[in-house]
Amino acid sequence: VCIHRVRSCSSIRFIKSKYVCVFDKSALKFSHQQRLFRTSAVSCGQIVQFKLSDIGEGITEVTVKEWYVKEGDSVSQFDSICEVQSDKASVTITSRYDGVIRKLHYSIDEIAFVGKPLVDIEIDASKGVAPEEDVVETPPMSHEEHTHQEIKGHKTLATPAVRRLAMENNIKLSEVVGTGKDNRILKEDILNYLAKQTGAILPPSPKAEIIPPLRKTETVPAAPKDKARKIPVPVSRPIAFSGKDKTEPVTGFQKAMVKTMSAALKIPHFGYCDEIDLTQLVQLREELKPLAEIRGVKLSFMPFFIKAASLGLLQYPILNASLDENCQNVTYKASHNIGVAMDTEQGLIVPNVKNVQVCSVFDIASELNRLQSLGSAGQLGTSDLTGGTFTLSNIGTIGGTYAKPVILPPEVAIGALGKIQVLPRFNGKGEVFKAQIMNVSWSADHRIIDGATMARFSNLWKSYLESPASMLLDLK
Amino acid sequence: MVLQSSLKNWLWLYCILRTPKACFRSTASGGLIIQSISNDVYQNLAVEDWIHDHMDLEKRQVLFLWRNSPAVVIGRHQNPWQECNLRLLRQKNIKLARRRSGGGTVYHDLGNINLTFFTTRKKYERMENLKLVVKALKALRPQLDVHVTDRYDILLDRQYKISGTAAKLGRTSAYHHCTLLCNADKFVLSSVLKSPYKGLKSNATPSVPASVKNLFEEDPSLTSEMLLDAIAKEYAKQHQIDHHITLINPADETLLPGINNKTKELQTWEWVYGKTPKFSISTFLNMAYKDSVLDVQVNMDVKHGRIEVCNIDLPEQWLPPGLYSKLVKSLTGSKFCPNETTMLVTTLLRTCPQDDELHGRWSLLCENMIMLM
Questions:
Q1: Are B17 and B54 in contact (CB under 8 A)?
Q2: Which InterPro entries does this UniProt record tie to the protein (chain B) (predicted)?
Q3: H or E stretch including A110?
Q4: For A121, B185, B266, B285, which has the most beta carbons within 10 A of its beta carbon?
Q5: Does residue B329 sit in helix, strand or coil?
Q6: CA–CA gap between residue A304 and residue A463 (Å, rounded)
């Protein structure tokens, strides 16, 4: 019985390969039925030892610096396998075959020898790629590739796997647009070509599947006929989409933000919003901008917002406080270290301007310039980023009107400023005039701050900004 | 020497870069000399990548001439922390780039010229290229004592290194590039190429420090332009082509499709820092706290530029254990980067107990940790 099975197995064995998956005759006697099945069913592709080819200049050994593949990975011809280094030269070793990596002969930093095996690749036997002798680069094929590069319709570049795919689908390679290197045709190009040609190639049966089962069977054959008489309607086919989901771990700064935001949402927030007429402030800033520039400072609206907030905090110090972990004590902070939310490449950072209560608007503007340039260079220090007591977020520079800002612990309040819009408003005489309107959205910790306090602070802040001259009265 | 950048020239270059046969100037067969109009190290490195990946060098070899505004360029398999003073680089706004070729670290500024010799892999021959450079220099100034060593350096007066070499080999093409010191700022060079980081252990390719000298010091009448011209002339002679340098704009996407992506990739943190081979740090932090100085041992493993393992040997209870483990857990997996770490630790502080003493210790420790990066 055993012998009989052997014969039938040998008839379906891999005729083309030079390397043979060996059945030892002695093994046959003891071999299990299952074992025979397994060896014949598994695509025992030939394992080819891909040797490290000549680097040139008489170099015999190199150091393996980086592997681009690992055991079990599939590779296509010309894919990069590893990077080796020899005497100031970095060499990219590419695969000569399509197949699966079965063994890496060296680990990182080991010395590899020219002419010795670098990796073992298992080639699918049915593809019939004969392993070549160790050849010095460049293989003759590339010369042909280049000669025929511009001639369309003649020799086109494609790996054996791609050619097979095209052949199986009756596609002429000359009709496919190659998007790979040197206009090489890739598998994706064949798939895209197929997607466009679905009318001719895919079988018509899917149409029948789309028709709902409730319809009577007589109408089923009628439908295709109708379609033939009607103006052809483009049928939406499943488009070959080769995108893959990408999962990344949450690390570093992002992870820290997760912790902060989770803690922040434990704070019972309440919101309060309002609209500020900045017409007068806009004018004032226009006057003061050139003066600041002469002193080398860029003056935006933020210094005014920040100073007005500090003046407000002097009247309502609870907004510049901190509640301890057990909600036992409230600490009223003496310094007004007002944080300014900044959007950088890495994410949201909030550096703060220290002691705004003793700073002039110009001081604040100058400090903001410093923080902004450090922020964009990614060079803010720890002291710039800690010690904040109150935060303003000028999301309006990006866009938006009203927002729902999240308080940054250990603070108890935050304000989000929308964009300045030119809107029609009524003045005291009932006339319509052009007003520069900005919206503000405050959030505060409802455990220690009540709505009335927030509203009064906001009104005070608003009054300073709507008539900037009033700030002069209270400036210290 | 003819320098042209007219539209006709652009079209000609466009054809050259694509179809090696369709050139209507027979004088350009066999070789091509191009010079970058940009001084941005990333753009110029991207041009090298582009030519290496896309040009057919069988019929025509290429010489690429370029100069960069201040930058430190490390080799493919090197460790930037080991090679240069990253703090100083950041302060002085000097760029850091990792090239794709091997070799050691160099400092570039406008007083240094870079030469890249592109050939097919078969024709890769560094010694010939360097001999060409030496020949050009001698033709320009016969009294110059310059020669090529077997380490592929060019030495002036038998002692001073004026040129370093590196190379990249691909499947079908290869390039060999080298620097040439004309009038670079030696003071900045020596200060940025000195690493202040202690306790690093790594298998990354180390640089071999050498005494350097500018050609300008030997002969003040020499300028970068003269040297570029002399080398181009010699190259043209040896390849039997016109002595003609074509200007190339590394931002020209139509001429070099895909170049902007290559430029961007070279600037990513993942490439510049993330490609550092695995290394470990074992060092001491000297923290002055109140009236004493603490010696705190720190051990870290960094892989792909990220902290894999972190151990800080603090005195017991100096930081509440919960806080210490919070710090270590957050640092693990995070980039070995001062900015990332600063943002991380300051954000973490928001969810720590509000205690001035505690905050003081935390800030002190974190600032010292950041100094390691």
A1: yes
A2: aa-tRNA-synth_II/BPL/LPL (IPR045864), BPL_LPL_catalytic (IPR004143), LipoylTrfase_LipoateP_Ligase (IPR004562)
A3: none
A4: A121
A5: helix
A6: 12
Is the CB of A137 inside 8 Å of chain B's CB atoms? yes
Tokens of A107: 């680990």
| Element holding B139 (H helix, E strand) | helix B126-140
* Cβ–Cβ contact B354 with A under 8 A: yes
Q: Report the alpha-carbon distance of residue A81 to residue A101 in Å, rounded.
A: 9
Q: Is the peptide bond before A410 cis (omega within 30 degrees of 0)?
A: yes
The SS3 of residue A424 is strand
Report pLDDT digits (tens) over B140-194. 999 999 999 988 999 999 999 999 999 999 988 999 999 999 999 999 999 999 9
Q: Which residue has the tokens 């919003």?
A: A273
Residue A6 has pLDDT above 80, yes or no: no
Helix (H) or strand (E) holding B190: helix B186-192
* Conformation bin of residue B265: beta by default, left when phi > 0, alpha when psi is -120 to 50: alpha
Which helix (H) or strand (E) element contains residue B13?
helix B7-18
Q: Chain A closest CA to B233's CA: distance in Å?
A: 26
Q: Which amino acid is at B369?
A: M
Q: How far apart are CA A377 and CA A371, in angstroms?
A: 10
Q: What is the DSSP letter of B240?
A: T
> pLDDT tens digits for B314-336?
888 888 888 899 999 999 999 99
* ipTM of the complex in this document: 0.84
Residues of A in contact with B120 (CB under 8 A): 138
- Assess contact for A351 and A377: CB atoms under 8 A: no
- CB distance B81 to B105 below 8 Å: no
Q: What is the rounded distance in angstroms from the CA atom of residue A225 to the CA atom of residue B245?
A: 68
User: Which chain A residues in 207-246 lie under 8 Å from chain B, judged by CB atoms?
Assistant: none
Sign of CA dihedral A179, A182, A186, A190: positive
DSSP state of A214: T
| Beta partners for residue B293, in sequence order | B288
For residue B98, give the 3-state DSSP assignment. strand
Q: Which residues fall within 8 angstroms of residue A229, CB to CB, at 6 or more apart?
A: none
Predicted TM-score of the model (pTM):
0.76
| Cα A190 versus chain centre, distance | 27
- State the amino acid at position A314 in one-letter form: L
Which candidate from A142, A257, A410 shows the least CB-CB separation from B347? Answer: A257
Kindly report the backbone phi and psi dihedral angles of residue B303, in degrees, each rounded to the nearest multiple of 5, phi listed first: -130, 135
Q: Under an 8 A CB cutoff, do A90 and B333 touch?
A: no
